[in-house]
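User: Sequence in, structure out. Go.
Assistant: Echoing your sequence, followed by the C-alpha cells.
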Amino acid sequence: MKTCRVLLKITVYLTAITLLMTVASGCWSRKEIEDLAFVVAVGVDMSPSGNIQITAQFAKPEAMGSAEGQKSDEKPFWVATSEGNTMFEALRNLSYLSPKRPYLPHNNFYLFGEEVFRESGLKPFLDLINRNPEPRLTAHIGVVKGATAKDLIQAEFEGMPMSSRALQGIMNHLTNAWGTIPETTIREFMDRMESEGIEPIAMGAKLIPFESDFEIEGEVSREQVKATATLGGTAVFKGDYLVGWLDSFETRGLNWILGKVNDTVVEFPQPAAEGKIASAEILRSSGKFKVEVEDDRVRARIEVNTVGNLGGVQEPVDFIEEPELWTQFERGVETAIEDEIARTIATLQRLGADAVGFGQYIFRRKPKEWAKLRDRWDEIFPTIEVSINVTTHLRGTGVILKSTESR
C-alpha cells in the first residue's frame, strides 16, 4: 500500500514537471527585437486623393552610437508615409516600406493635421487606437495648426537627435514652466469625449519651416535642419470635431481654472510707473469652480489661489520706503490672471464648447437639474454668468528689497 502511494506521488510530480516544461519552453506569440521597427511618432493627414495618409517616424538605434562611444553620421530616425482607405489599412501599408514590422507600443505622439477635420471627426481614428492592443492610450494627442502632420513629423531640433524626444521635452517644459499647453493623452481625450457636460481638448502644434520645400525621407545625413516645430495653445473640440483654438495664454487661463499651472511667469502693468511692466514668478497655484442652478439660470464661480515671488520691474522700486506698493503688486498679478481666465471663458462661450466642465459639475452633483438642462446645454453654456476671484500672495522679492539705481 505504501509503495502504491509513493508511485502515485512520483507520477503526479513527473506529470506536473512535464506540463511546466511544456509551458515554459517558449512563447508562441513572441516578437524578436531584431524584427521590429519602433514607431515613436505618428502623423495623420488627408491625402490629395482623399485617402487617409499616415506618416510614421521610426527610431534607428544603430545610428545612436554604441557603448564604446562610436557615433554614426546617420540621423537616428527615418520617416515613411503610406495611404489607405482606413487608418488600419494605411498603418498596415507601412509594411511595404519597412523591412521590419512597424511596432506601436513605444509611440509617444499621435498628431493630426487640420485637414483631417474638414473631412470627418476623430472617432474613426480613435476607434483603431482603442481597439488595437498595441497602441498605448498614454500617448499624447495633438493637432497641427496651419500645416500637415507629415511636415511636423519631419521637423528636427538642434541639439536633439530624436525629434519625438524634443517634442516631449518642449511639452514637459511648457507644462511645468509655463502652463500654456494641455498635456492631453489619448485616454484623457476619450474620457472627455464620452463624459457628460465636458468637451475634449488637445495640445496645439506649429511648424517653423526654414526652407519652403523640404523632404527628408531617404536622406542618410545632412548638415542643415530644414524645419523645426513648437507646441502651444489648445485645439478645442465638440464631440470629436475641431471647432476652434485657444492661444497660449487662453490655454493658461483654462489651466488656472483646472489647477494645472505648476510654475509660470505673469506680467502686469507696474504700479506707480506708467507704461512700465513688472513680472511675478508663480511658484504654485490651485483652482476650483462651483456652478449654481436656479431654474434656467446658471452661474459659475471660479476661485484661483497663487503663491509666488516678484520677478522683476522696469522702473526702480523701493519697498522699504514704500511698503504699500507690495499690496498693489499683488493686486496687479491678480488682475492679470483674472483677465486671462475671462478671455478663456469668452472664447469657449463663443465656440460653444464647455472645455472647463461646468456641465459635468452639474451632472455629477445635481443630476436632476442636469436632466433638465442636458438637451439645451449648447444654448445655455454661452449665456452662463461667470465670476472670477483670484488671490495672490507674493512672499519674496528675490535677494533685494530696493532696485539698483544709477547716480
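User: And one key feature?
Assistant: The first strand starts at residue 36 and ends at 46.
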